[in-house]
C-alpha cells in the first residue's frame, strides 16, 4: 500500500507536499549538489517524489540522470539507484562525485535509453543491486531542443521535430517501465517550449502520449515555479520588457506529472 511508505503517525509535521503548486524559495545546495549543469532540476523535486513514493532500500530508476541530482537524493534517503545518461561527460562527473560512496547501492550507465539494449543494462543493474523490480522511476528529459546536451543523434535534444521527440521519449518510457513494478509510480518533469511565435505545449503532448500508450492513472499535475532558474534570471528586466513590447507571457513554471502504472 502506498500509505505504508509514509509514517502517518506524525502526519501533521511531515514535510511531504500534497498541494499541486510547488513554490520553492531556494535551491537546496547542501551535500553533493553543485548546480553545475544547465538543465538540471532542483533537488527538492526528487526529494519530494522519492520520499512520497518509495520506502528505504527500494530502487529508483532515472533514465536521464544528468548531473546526478536524483542519485544524490537517493543516497541521502537510503534508496537504491539505477541511472542512465547519454552524456559521457556527466557520467564521468557523477562517477567522480560518488568516489567515496558505497558502491553497492547504485549503478551508473553511459547509455542511450531509447536503444532497446538498455533493458539488458537495467536487468543487469537490478541483479547487481540484488533486486528484481524498480519501485519508482523519474523522467527528466530534455525539453526538446531548448538546451542541446550532446551532439549524439539519439540525444533527445537533437530531435528534428516535436513529433520525433515524442516518439523517441515513448521508446524510453517503454523500455524503462518494463521494470517498474505494477501499481507503482513514475513522474515526468517537463516544461513547454516556444516555437514559430507560439507556445508548443510539449508537456501536455507528452502527458497525452503516455495516457494513450501506457495503461496508467494520472495522479497529479504539479506546477512548479522556476523563479531563480539561470536562464530566466533577467525575467524582471529585459525579458519583461520584451514581453511587454510583444504579445506573449514569460514561462515561469514546469510540470511534474505523476502516474501510477497499471500494467
Ligand atoms: C534535463 S537533463 C536531466 C537533468 C537532471 N535531472 C539533473 O538534475 O541534472 C536531460 C538529460 O538527458 C540526457 N539525454 C538526452 N537524450 C538521452 C538519451 N537518449 N538517453 C539517455 N540520456 C539522454 C542528456 O544528456 C541530459 O543529461
Counting structural domains, the number is 1
Helix/strand/pairing class, anyone? alpha/beta
Ligand inventory: S-adenosylmethionine
Percentage of residues assigned to helices: 25-40%
The CATH homologous superfamily corresponds to: Vaccinia Virus protein VP39
What's the number of extended β-strand segments? 10
User: Which fold name fills CATH's third level, the topology?
Assistant: Rossmann fold
User: Could you state the order of secondary-structure elements as H and E?
Assistant: EHEHEHEHEHEEEHEHE
The biggest beta sheet is recorded as: 8 strands, mixed
Form type: globular
> Tally the helices: what do you get?
7
- What is the rounded Rg? 18 Å
Q: Outline the low-pLDDT stretches.
A: none
Question: Roughly how many Å apart are the termini?
Answer: 17 Å
pLDDT averaged residue by residue: 94
Provide the spatial order of strands within the biggest beta sheet. 1-9-10-6-5-2-3-4
Binned strand content: 15-25%
Summary keywords:
about 260 residues, alpha/beta, Rossmann fold, eight-stranded mixed beta sheet, two-stranded antiparallel ribbon, 7 helices, binds S-adenosylmethionine
Question: What does this 3D model show about the protein?
Answer:
This protein is α/β, with parallel strands linked by helices and 263 residues long. It has a single domain (34-261), classed as 3-Layer(aba) Sandwich (Rossmann fold), CATH 3.40.50. It has 7 helices and 10 strands. It has helices at 44-53, 69-77, 88-97, 118-128, 162-177, 202-213, 238-245; strands at 21-22, 59-62, 80-84, 106-109, 134-139, 180-190, 193-195, 198-200, 216-225, 253-261. Strands 1-9-10-6-5-2-3-4 form an 8-stranded mixed sheet, sandwiched between helices. It starts with 20 loop residues before the first strand and ends with a strand. The model has no long low-confidence stretch (mean pLDDT 94). Bound molecules: S-adenosylmethionine (SAM). Residues 37, 39-41, 64, 66-67, 69, 84-87, 90, 112-114, 140-142, 149-150, 154-157 line the site of S-adenosylmethionine. S-adenosylmethionine (SAM) binds next to loops.
Amino acid at each position: 500500500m502506498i500509505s505504508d511508505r509514509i509514517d502517518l503517525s506524525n502526519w501533521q509535521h511531515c514535510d511531504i507536499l500534497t498541494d499541486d503548486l510547488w513554490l520553492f524559495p531556494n535551491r537546496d545546495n547542501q551535500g553533493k549538489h553543485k548546480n553545475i549543469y544547465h538543465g538540471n532540476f532542483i533537488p527538492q523535486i526528487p526529494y519530494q517524489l522519492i520520499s512520497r513514493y518509495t520506502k528505504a532500500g527500494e530502487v529508483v530508476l532515472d533514465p536521464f540522470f544528468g548531473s546526478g541530482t536524483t542519485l544524490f537524493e537517493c543516497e541521502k534517503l537510503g534508496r537504491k539507484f539505477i541511472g542512465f545518461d547519454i552524456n559521457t561527460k556527466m557520467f564521468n562527473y557523477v562517477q567522480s562525485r560518488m568516489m567515496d560512496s558505497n558502491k553497492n547501492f547504485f549503478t551508473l550507465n553511459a547509455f542511450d535509453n531509447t536503444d532497446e539494449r538498455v533493458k539488458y543494462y537495467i536487468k543487469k543493474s537490478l541483479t547487481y543491486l540484488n533486486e528484481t523490480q524498480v519501485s519508482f522511476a523519474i523522467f527528466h528529459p530534455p525539453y526538446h531542443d531548448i538546451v542541446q546536451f550532446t551532439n549524439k543523434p539519439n540525444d533527445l535534444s537533437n530531435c528534428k521535430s516535436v513529433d520525433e521527440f515524442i516518439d523517441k521519449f515513448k521508446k524510453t518510457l517503454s523500455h524503462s517501465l518494463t521494470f517498474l513494478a505494477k501499481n507503482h509510480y513514475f513522474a515526468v518533469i517537463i516544461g513547454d517550449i516556444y516555437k514559430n511565435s507560439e507556445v508548443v505545449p510539449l508537456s501536455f503532448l507528452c502527458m497525452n502520449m503516455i495516457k494513450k500508450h501506457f495503461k496508467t492513472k494520472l495522479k497529479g499535475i504539479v506546477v512548479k515555479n522556476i523563479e531563480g532558474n539561470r536562464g530566466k534570471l533577467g525575467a524582471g528586466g529585459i525579458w519583461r520588457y520584451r514581453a511587454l513590447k510583444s504579445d506573449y507571457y514569460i514561462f515561469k513554471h514546469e510540470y511534474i506529472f505523476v502516474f501510477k502504472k497499471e500494467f
